[in-house]
Design a protein that fits this description.
It is elongated, with a radius of gyration of 20 Å. By secondary structure, the chain is mainly α. It folds into two domains: 84 residues, Orthogonal Bundle (Arc Repressor Mutant, subunit A); 67 residues. 68% of the residues lie in helices and 9% in strands. Strand 1 and strand 2 form a beta hairpin. Strands 1-2 form a two-stranded antiparallel ribbon. The termini are far apart. It has eight helices and two strands.
């Protein structure tokens, strides 16, 4: 078992800020910037918390609430912290992961290690450039008019244009960051 959902990394990031109970974290998703990136239902939140606890990335402690039942307060473990910060430094592998995973990384890098923002963007540009080079090396005009060859060509061209567009956006982000830092 391993972390497989973007929201799981976001939960680790929230717990790096401070210990929280599940509903408090849910509100961070619902009302904060993370909610613009990741849609999360309350039932998913609790399933992810149980999974992260089984992985020993987080731990829970019961907190009394007077006459009401105690609530679980979750904390990041040292293993969870190491896993989160290692993940935070690496670019995403595929351009389709930029829309969610890279934005989560950018959100938390700006919060915890703002000096790493530029290097993260730089690494992401290199990763996208490598992916684009790979796609373009496959590019050939369809030699046959069969539906399969034509559709393969259309899909490949679409991926090439999407990756170029992401690179343009990343370069723009890089320039905006440089302007902010002046």
């Amino acid at each position: 078992m391993y972390i497989s959902e973007p929201a799981e990394y976001a939960i680790l990031g929230l717990l790096e800020s401070q210990p929280m109970h599940g509903y408090e974290m849910f509100q961070q998703f619902k009302n904060g910037a993370l909610g613009q990136i990741v849609h999360l239902e309350m039932s998913q939140m609790y399933a992810f918390l149980k999974k992260l606890e089984r992985l020993k990335y987080i731990e829970a402690q019961l907190e009394a609430q007077g006459p009401r039942p105690p609530r679980k307060i979750f904390r990041l473990t040292e293993q969870g912290r190491r896993t989160f910060f290692q993940w935070l430094k690496e670019p995403v592998e595929r351009p389709r992961e930029i829309r969610i995973l890279f934005l989560i990384k950018l959100y938390f890098v700006r919060q915890f290690t703002p000096e790493e923002t530029g290097p993260l963007i730089d690494k992401q540009i290199v990763a996208c450039r490598n992916f684009l080079d790979h796609l373009e090396s496959q590019h050939t005009l369809p030699l046959e008019a069969s539906d399969g060859a034509f559709f393969d060509h259309v899909v490949l061209r679409g991926r090439i244009y999407q990756t170029r567009s992401l690179l343009d956006w990343l370069h723009e982000l890089q320039h905006q960051l440089a302007e902010i830092q002046r």
